[in-house]
Design brief:
Number of domains: 2
CATH topology of the largest domain: D-Maltodextrin-Binding Protein, domain 2
CATH superfamily of the largest domain: Periplasmic binding protein-like II
Helix content: 40-55%
């Protein structure tokens, strides 16, 4: 795949004008004095994996680097991409394959770090299922046809010598919350869910007298299939390419602050939940708190994570080249401090 979609191009044009009016656009629009920015924008999805990014924003930025920092929620992939392509977001938390796709389409983002290393589970009400191989012939809910939950499930089953389409009955739904609701209401038995949707389903099912459990951790399934460590580079941070090239001190601040924030979330889960509850209002606090132990937070800088990221992207590309934008990103994709 190459080039931006028509929607992205339209969003770029519209939002570029808006960013100039608001004074919170790209690095050039935000500059008030040489080397100093007015507003730093960090964006992330409205869910627990973004808690560390939210923590960075609430802690503030040194005044010699910028006047303020704020957190912006992206609720759809289109919104996230539009902010990046228009320069309105300086730092973004995104799925790893999305970062690769953006770069391959000509959006010169810089991958700074990988920070989510596991988030995907097979959730089931069947006490007899303990592996993907145990799903033979059964219907399984899978959100986002052609996206990462789908492709990764296909990959893991292929590693076991079977093709998903003929081995089980994939039932595609448009969103993870839809799959979670069907599972929690007893209208489905199995679903591939990321956090916090897995936790939400388990809690809701409990209210309905149904017992759900995480039967398969995809990190462990990945380790069994590949012989590599039980972790998957699922989400990364990227920076605006122009910012990364011209504001090294700001990048160094962000990297250090994000590293500390990731450690803070895992060691202060109750405080992190209270922080998230103020912004991620659609997620009940109980579900947010209970999901944190099932999200593998770990800050790894781009150069240190590169070999694992490239292996992961390469394996996904073998089934779906379009999932990563057609090719492995080159050296310039990975930020070097």
């Amino acid at each position: 795949m190459s080039g931006l979609t028509r929607r992205e191009l339209l969003s770029l044009g519209a939002r570029a004008g808006l960013s100039a009016l608001l004074g919170v656009g790209g690095p050039t629009a935000c500059r008030r004095a040489a080397g100093r920015l007015q507003t730093i924008v960090i964006q992330g999805a409205p869910s627990p994996p973004s808690l560390a990014l939210l923590r960075v924003a609430t802690q503030g930025v040194p005044k010699e680097l910028a006047e303020e920092v704020r957190f912006a929620v992206w609720s759809t992939a289109d919104e996230m991409r539009a902010r990046i392509t228009s320069g309105q977001a300086h730092f973004s938390g995104v799925p790893t394959n999305v970062a690769a796709t953006l770069y391959n389409r000509g959006v010169r983002v810089q991958l700074l770090s990988a920070y989510i290393w596991g988030i995907l589970y097979l959730v089931t009400s069947d006490p007899g299922v303990s592996s993907l191989a145990g799903l033979k012939g059964q219907p399984v809910l899978i959100p986002f046809r052609g996206d990462l939950p789908d492709i990764l499930t296909q990959y893991l089953l292929r590693r076991e010598g079977v093709e998903m389409a003929s081995f089980l009955q994939p039932t595609y739904v448009s969103t993870a919350p839809e799959a979670a609701q069907l599972l929690a209401s007893g209208r489905a038995t199995h679903a591939v869910l990321s956090e916090p949707s897995a936790t939400l389903a388990i809690l809701k099912a409990r209210q309905n007298g149904i017992t759900l459990r995480r039967a398969v951790d995809y990190c462990n399934a990945w380790a069994e299939a590949t012989g590599r460590p039980p972790r998957l580079p699922m989400a990364v941070t990227v920076a605006d390419g122009a910012l990364a090239a011209s504001h090294g001190r700001l990048l160094a601040w962000f990297q250090g602050a994000h590293r500390e924030a990731v450690e803070w979330v895992t060691s202060h889960a109750d405080e992190a939940t209270r922080l998230g509850a103020e912004v991620f209002k659609a997620i009940p606090a109980e579900a947010m708190r209970e999901s944190i132990p099932y999200i593998r937070f770990s800050f790894v800088e781009a150069q240190d994570a590169r070999s694992e990221i490239e292996f992961f992207l390469s394996e996904m590309q073998s089934l779906s080249p379009q999932l990563i934008g057609g090719r492995l990103p080159p050296d310039g994709f990975y930020y070097r401090s």
